[in-house]
Design brief:
63% of the residues lie in helices and 2% in strands. By secondary structure, it is mainly α. The protein has 3 domains: 49 residues, no CATH class; 95 residues; 104 residues, no CATH class. Strand 1 and strand 2 form a beta hairpin. Helix 6 packs across helix 8. The longest helix is centred in the middle third of the chain and has 34 residues. The relative contact order is 0.08.
């Protein structure tokens, strides 16, 4: 990620000086490196790869887009740290037989135990250590809330992000992340190509006219892929309670496991997101035919 950000920075600087800059994915250039890897071999491979008519180039992100994505990366890191602290708090108290329900209410109950000075079953050294964890949890909560307020402000100011939010399963976080990541939807010829770029298509290992399909390719941005799959899982949960509103999903769930159906729906959401960006339109819900 750091190398990618540095490449975008120098690409912007060279463009500002009047140079034409085109970025290529390193994995696409690797195939043209002959024998040992060194600077001369890398330069020759780059010169060979850039002449290929089928070569794909990486659009250069603006500083504003990278700043918007930095809010998402930082928020994601802080959420992982919050999860680690909650798991540590639960594990340490469970050693003494103190457990609570899952969710925020359970964490609040454990925090109350930690700060309850009348509870003699909790040794003083352990209480001091756990109070530090609870204090860190509170600080992380405030920092995450502040970042989310900034993300919501960016969402309200972006027309593309507000169009993406209308798609079922894509909330404010997903909409702002997609809008900041996709610099130009015209880079992709279709929604299918955009979904393949995110890594929501089956990986192929075909040869001799025989197709061999595996799991999803998991290429490109794993953060976008995770947001889409989590959003698709929420849509599936809602569809089970309202099967008459989602006949396509119910037919899919009847044939495939829930996780496979979630990935298929995430692929469809990615194609709808590309259409919303490329055509400048809001999502229009399909009309469900009445059953006789």
């Amino acid at each position: 990620m750091e190398a990618c950000a540095t490449a975008h920075h120098w690409a912007r600087e060279l463009t500002r000086l009047g140079h034409t800059v085109r970025l290529m994915p390193a994995s696409y250039v690797k195939a043209y490196v002959k024998r040992s890897k060194n600077d001369a071999a890398d330069a020759a491979a780059i010169c060979e790869a850039v002449t290929r008519p089928s070569m794909r180039f990486v659009p250069v992100k603006t500083a504003e887009q990278q700043a918007a994505l930095m809010l998402h990366r930082t928020r994601d890191l802080l959420i992982r740290q919050r999860t680690q602290l909650v798991n540590a708090l639960r594990a340490h108290l469970a050693d003494l037989g103190m457990v609570a329900a899952q969710g925020r209410d359970g964490v609040k109950e454990l925090a109350a135990i930690v700060f309850d000075e009348t509870n003699i079953s909790l040794p003083r050294p352990m209480r001091d250590a756990l109070q530090a964890l609870v204090a860190q949890l509170g600080a992380l909560r405030e920092q995450i809330d502040a970042l989310e307020r900034r993300i919501h402000a960016q969402h309200r100011a972006s027309d593309a992000s507000r169009r993406l939010e209308t798609i079922p399963g894509i909330g404010v976080i997903g909409a702002t992340a997609i809008a900041a990541t996709v610099t130009d939807p015209a880079v992709f010829r279709s929604g299918r190509e955009f979904a393949a770029w995110i890594g929501l298509v089956l990986r192929q290992n075909s040869s001799g006219g025989k197709e061999r399909l595996g799991g999803i390719s998991k290429q490109a941005d794993r953060y976008l892929r995770r947001l889409l799959i989590v959003g698709a899982t929420a849509v599936l949960r809602y569809a089970r309670s309202r099967p008459d509103k989602h006949p396509w999903l119910m037919r899919l769930l009847a044939r495939r496991p829930a996780k496979v159906a979630a990935v298929a729906l995430a692929n469809k959401m990615a194609r709808m997101a590309w259409a919303a960006l490329a055509r400048g339109e809001f999502y229009r819900a399909p009309v469900v035919a009445a059953t006789v």
